Amino acid sequence: MRILIVRTDALGDLAISLAVQARILERCPQAEVHWLVSPYTAPLLDLLPGISGVHLRETDTDLRSLILNLKPDAVLNLSHRDRAIIPAAKAAGVPIRVARARGVGQILAATHLLWQSRQATRHHEAQNVLDFLAPFGWDGGCTAPPRLVLKETEREHGQKELAGIPHPRLGVILRGSGSGAFPSAVWWANTLSVLTGAGWNPVVLSPPGDSTLEPTDLRGLLGRMGACDAIVGPSTGPTHVAAALGVPVLCLMGLRPNHAPSRWAPRGEHIQVIQYPGPEADLSGGMDRLDPGALIPHLNRFRIVPLDSVSQ
Fold it and tell me: CA dist 68 to 88, 89, 99, 199, 269, Å?
């Protein structure tokens, strides 16, 4: 069986969706799993066991030709906003085409549709993506948290780049495009000072424009994350990636149900979540009401995690 998983949106979405591949290989170890992803997220899949192929979704990609050449038995369009995928799969004669009910063309071209909204399921997003496996009877439940892989050279380079920052080393993710909570620059400045006073040594890793480190690519960012003792940041792509690397993560989250921990908390072995107080909207200063000192007990729990257990 050859399956094409489509996830052409954001970094965190791809990290969450690794649960689909894990379930497929759990139930059908001989399956060929291919991914169609955005060029900027594709390096996340490097070295991941079980992948038969990674294909890039460029703006000019001839989807029908790509799918015809691949000849998959099923196309799972997890990227519900990429509505050209399923019609292309139908044109290529793919027997099983699974999508969310978004857009007339996609609805008419799919063989199996998910009608219920992701928010309405009240499930974690890692469980929602498993719904795409319903045609095989492999949906439901949830897999173990994903685990990304670092090359030894990437791990060593990350340690070298952060060698001037003593342990305990705290990687900081200030914000992200898909985050449900956006602390302000003023809050971060105060918070980093408080964390430094508590014995942590923060280093901003993302966004690149706010970091004092030299620009790097996605694999370079992973290497830097692997060199940290913990990561702190809102629920966005890099924090999900850090969790999948096995790095301890303190995730800052809002209160809106569609961005709550039950749906969007990073998945990993060492995860702490803290939510801002107050009922105001996530994007209008709610996180700034969080006392920076409240982060310290959560972070200090990570000090009992042996450093050599991270990113192995």
Answer: 9, 8, 19, 57, 40
Are 244 and 237 in contact by the 8 Å Cβ rule? The answer is: no
Say whether pLDDT at 289 is over 90: no
- Residue percentage of the chain with pLDDT more than 90: 75
Min mean pLDDT across 89-93, 113-117, 127-131, 158-162 is at 113-117
Residue 172: the pLDDT is 98
Q: What is the pLDDT of residues 105-119, one digit of tens each?
A: 999 999 999 988 777
- What domains sit in the chain, N to C, each tagged with a CATH number? 2-136 (3.40.50.2000), 152-309 (3.40.50.2000)
Confidence label for 206 from pLDDT (cuts 50, 70 and 90): very high
pLDDT digits (tens, 9 = 90+) for 7-62: 999 999 999 999 999 999 999 999 999 999 999 999 999 999 999 999 999 999 99
DSSP result, 164-224: TSPSSEEEEE---TT-S----HHHHHHHHHHHHHTT-EEEEEESGGG-SSPP--HHHHHHH
Q: How many residues does the chain have?
A: 312
Spatial distance between the Cα atoms of 61 and 288, rounded to a whole number of angstroms:
43
Instruction: Give yes or no for residue 180 having a pLDDT over 70.
Output: no
Number of C-beta neighbours around residue 85 at 10 A:
26
Whole-angstrom distance, CA of residue 132 vs CA of residue 256? 25
